[in-house]
Amino acid sequence: MSLEGAIKSDSAGILDQPMGETEGIDFEIIELLFFAYRDFISDPDAILDTSGFGRAHHRVVHFVNREPGLTVAALLDTLKITKQSLARVLKQLIDSGYIEQVAGPEDRRQRRLFPTDRGRELALALARPQSCRIANAMEGLDESGRAAVKTFLSGMINPVTRGAALDEDDTNEGQEQ
Amino acid sequence: MSLEGAIKSDSAGILDQPMGETEGIDFEIIELLFFAYRDFISDPDAILDTSGFGRAHHRVVHFVNREPGLTVAALLDTLKITKQSLARVLKQLIDSGYIEQVAGPEDRRQRRLFPTDRGRELALALARPQSCRIANAMEGLDESGRAAVKTFLSGMINPVTRGAALDEDDTNEGQEQ
DNA sequence: CAATTTATGTCAACATAGCTGACGTATTCG
DNA sequence: CGAATACGTCAGCTATGTTGACATAAATTG
Q1: Whose CA is nearest the C1' atom of nucleotide C29?
Q2: Which residues of B touch A62 (CB under 8 A)?
Q3: For residue B43, which of A5, B14, B106, B141 sits 20 to 30 Å off, Cα-Cα?
Q4: Which pTM was predicted?
């Protein structure tokens, strides 16, 4: 199959100028964020490849370790995924002995999630290289610089629509179904 | 099917303390990065849903617009994906008239990628909300604060192993095959 | 107490976007 | 000419997200 004919030799309707300062858009930071995050998750990814888990498991293990006893609903809200998505990885983590479930002490419908020692160690092993990378990137910054980074990152996050959690007059709302 | 028996009621081998200051790991920034990036890509994602494209298309359109005329090899190196992965989305973008290919002027084996007007507009439409979000997050910061953010993000990125691009004595290296 | 709502689990099917392996084709280069 | 290079493509697999529908146990409410 000849590729000729599908490939232009002239420059009709084509832009050859880089998308630069248009509309005052800061493409530099957009790209920095892309590359930074890509490399930021590459460290844990490499570890996870060994144990047969993926990024999804990483997030679950992380937040369960950060807040032992959190409910499935709370975890879903944090991760912003569906329960069917969570179920797959959570089941594997429970079956492999990284996380355990305990019926809620007051509301016994709840399944509160706790890390095992093994789960804690995995979470730490995954956090360690990320922490190193962060410490490295912070190295040259003073206290105000580090504070600026936190302010920036916090400002990038969507405000928690507190109303959504209170205006629950709707049957079957949210990401459910 | 009864769930009873699968759910622990005691607290054997379970950790109930949050993973906090262990080993001086900065879990706060780790999470800030996770949430910040998640919300950062949610804006373009919403737009892409409309046009039937995904994140993969976004990245391709972005970098082709940022560096018109870049080769497929260069794009693969930037995105750190395989050519088979790229092929799928690139083909769609070309077929839909967002990107065009031009045979390299010197090396005619190359397929240099250029955005069309349509492609440029898509890239801008996707960058606009991200830029707004960034501007918003930068609002309270002075010049040194903004510089700190850039320094930090740059420091998070893996150093470009310049040697890898020069020590090409290996046949068929890199991600190829 | 009966009815309903809530918290969670689960089955099935599907989409996106990554991957490996293998092979084809056009072009350049030694 | 032959090998290496730049790129395309077919086929199949995996991970992780989605929607829709339905089940079960416990809490809540009329």
Answers
A1: B107
A2: 30-31
A3: B141
A4: 0.88
